[in-house]
Amino acid sequence: MDLDQLPEFKALPKVVEKLSEFGIIKKFHAGDSVLNENAYIKSIPIVINGSLKVMQNDEDGREMLLYYIREGESCIMSFLCGLHHDTSKVSAIAEEDSEILMLPIDKVGLLIRESPDWLDYIFRLYHKRFEELLQVVNAVAFKKMDQRLLDLIKKKSVLTGSMVINITHEQLSTELGTARVVVSRLLKQMEEEGLVKLGRNKIELR
Question: Where are the beta strands (DSSP E) in the chain?
């Protein structure tokens, strides 16, 4: 899909023109690292095809999923850290094979100064990410792990457009910030309740 065909950019032809001029399109395979935590931001990723997952480590080295970046979206964390010449506080990993436009950080400020539409895009993105982070906080604080696990599986199903999710118990536990044995036990319980069907490194929503 071309950048100007994405809903977020259809009404922004001048922004698309500048992004096409300044950006470099790269392809990533599922599992590839797009942004590294604690590294300086050199380019901002804008997803053209596919999706990314944004993760963060705690002091004990445990990871947790913060949010997904879908087609037409970017990582607001990388915007903020890049503009302030700070290191990234998160990592971004390709959830599936993805095509990403990498916009050099020095061009981000240029576009902000030249284009109100680009600034509006950033603010809309910030608003969406803020709401998603509030959902993460709410889930961790108030939801039981079984509900968080089922919500994550459903979210991945929507993201990929498939009722079958190819993922290991270890990967799910990493994204939820819990132990693999906990995820395995809960998935077995969900299978007994008829919510999912388990296979080798895959889960089918029923």
Answer: 24-28, 33-35, 43-49, 52-57, 63-69, 91-94, 98-104, 164-166, 196-199, 202-205
